């Protein structure tokens, strides 16, 4: 290896070594109250901010009250892939508990559940459970249904509503399909994904968010400049070579 510009090479090498020293420190479990590494710490804080701006359940509840009652009749497939019969039966048991609370009539046929009832009642119960889960009140859901795993139960809401939404779309019931999809994407999914994360408003964490973003920008540029200086020291450049003119 031939170093053509020693000062640039040494500066780039020093910056690169510093980059990895900081990287090592970032992986130490010393950040925050939970003593996490820096990546987990920053990810947790970004999730708190994301959750703080993802609460739409109160709006959906209000809109649901003005939504007309709609009778639905469809089939829900409970089996996924190569699951065993015991796994399918366990899922059916959870699904039927949800349907019973929503006053939906059902009949189990093999691995399918044939349902008939008011879509509005179904969505009302789904929103209530999503609201509890969003605010980390899992005990409310456990007590309501007499189960131990509230997150698994919430997944069944997603399975039921996603299949109903597809059936409504197929039947060209556009308004019903659109509202069901809104409950899925703006209530069930955020409640499931952000469960047990404390929501924070952007105004409460503005300094931390700004600091993290500035750090990530500087840290990325740090690595890029260190490589650039090392290459420059080795005589490698992205600059276009000068064209030699013949005399």
Please give the radius of gyration in angstroms: 28 Å
Give the structural class.
mainly alpha
Count, helices: 9
Report the portion of residues in β strands.
5-15%
- Can you give the helix content as a percent range? 55-70%
Q: Which blocks of ≥5 consecutive residues have pLDDT under 50? A: none
Q: What does the largest sheet look like?
A: 3 strands, antiparallel
As for the number of domains, it is: 2
Q: How are the strands of the largest sheet arranged?
A: 1-3-2
- Bulk shape: elongated
> Helix and strand succession?
HHHEHEEHHHHH
Distance between the termini: 35 Å
Q: Give the integer mean of the pLDDT values.
A: 91
Number of extended strands: 3
Could you explain how this protein is built, in words?
The chain has 247 residues and is mostly helical. It has 2 domains: 6-50 and 200-233, no CATH class; 56-193, no CATH class. 63% of the residues lie in helices and 8% in strands. The protein has 9 helices and 3 strands. Strands 1-3-2 form a 3-stranded antiparallel β-sheet. β2 and β3 (112-118) form a beta hairpin. α1 runs antiparallel to α9 (206-233), α3 (57-65) runs antiparallel to α5 (119-134) and α5 (119-134) runs antiparallel to α7. The radius of gyration is 28 Å and the shape is elongated. The two termini are 35 Å apart. The model has no long low-confidence stretch (mean pLDDT 91).
